[in-house]
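#struct-pred

JT: dropping the chains for the assembly here, can someone run the whole complex?
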Amino acid sequence: MGYPERWVGLRNYIYLANDDTFHAVVRNSLVFTVASVALKVGTGLLMALVLHATWRWRNFFRGLLLLPWITSTVIIALTWRWMFDAFPGRGFFNSVLLDAGLLTRPIAFMATPEGAMAAVVIANWWRGFPFFGVSYLAGMQSIPVELYEAASVDGAGAWRRFWHITLPGLKHVMVVTILLTFIFTINDFNIIYVMTRGGPGTATQVFATYSYEVAFNALRWGRGVTISIYVVPLLIALIPLVSRYLLRERTA
Amino acid sequence: MRAWKAATIIGLVAFGLTVLVPFWWIASMSFKTYEQIQFATSIYVPRPFTWENYTGLWLDTRFPLWLRNSAVTAVVVTAITTIVACLAGYAVARLRFPGRESVASLILILYLVPPSLLFIPLYRVLAELGATNSLWSLFLSYPTFTVPFCTWLLIGFFKALPTELEEAAMVDGATRVQALWRVLLPLAAPGIVASAIFAFTLSWNEFLYALIFIQDETSITVPVGLNLLIYGDVFHWGQLMAASVITTVPVVALYMFIHRWMVEGLAAGSVKG
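RK: done, full complex below.
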């Protein structure tokens, strides 16, 4: 299987440190992760605020909005790939834009490096934001109403109440959701593999997809593992941090 | 106040549409003919409405076999996971032994180690065991992520239940196993069902391990099979979407059944006070 095994010392690490593709992989992984997490935090907060203000059918809407989170990522990735598609059987966005007269001919959204990155970020965001929304809603529901009443009496407007009561009250759950999602997103495989296979070129190649490609297509097992080992320092820094937060609330 | 109400409704509609449009796209495309899809006619609603993707998928592809493989895997993995997670969760929640807190953190850390880090070494191990290319590779590998996750959930559920009932049972002469089986597990049933459904969903949707460990087309699961419906540049979109509908429905049905518990389980994992 692959090449014969022999001791090579740090050669795989040094090779990757000087490999342009690997530099692109690191950059892409960070862009993909930071953009996805930032979008999820923003829309998650918005979703939680909307659900918190919903006075009827809140559980129904919460259940409905959580649907993407339980759907297979492969199906989500295939569906979004098609929705962004230009041809054949043009996708959703081209159909809407053409019918609205905003386009005269279909655009291949995922053919450019930026377009492909935006597409995988959007698909990943769509799958993940409901988890943030539901978690933040639970956080908001645990903030005592008296705090808001007292602030209103003291003349604080909606924005100040949000800034000084809601956000500090959500600090704990925000740290947990951001760290958890960061860990899983920087190691994501499914969405990118199904939507772009890392392309066009290496524009969306990330740690997991590159590691797969090097190990299973180029049959360089050692180098494939080395790629994932490069993520380990980050995990060693983040995992104990998340665990501490999660364990603290268990024992409290 | 009226402005806030309007803003809330606009928000609900916007979020509802964001979530529903892709699902509607899947469902409506699954009922279109090949020509409707190829030539992009009747984009929004299938006209005429056809079942040909479903019959084609069922008769001309190996989808039924993939569905069976996914179901067998999910059931076996859920069974293994539930037994191990109940016992492990009980041990951490109730027994006093040195290093109990470290075991709890270790379980959590195991859950946080991403599969993308483990797939190459796991592949080598499974190949040595001769388990690759069969569902055994999945029975053996999926518990590496379902067991830590479900144990973590169950520790929380068990800890939240009062210990007095079990103690009373043991004072009355029940053994520890009887106290677990007759007292704690029935009380924790909602949590156990929720964790079992999580395990089922995780293995039903898993892709990376299934893609790597199994090459034989008769042993693959649905998520991998879906990628085989793409031949080079030819996408059998109608059949793909029909397969997506068939694959998503069981999970959504299970989920509607436990939605409340699931949200509480989620909340127990990430927020509490």
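JT: nice. Chain A touches chain B through 78 residues (CB under 8 Å). The mean pLDDT of chain A is 88.
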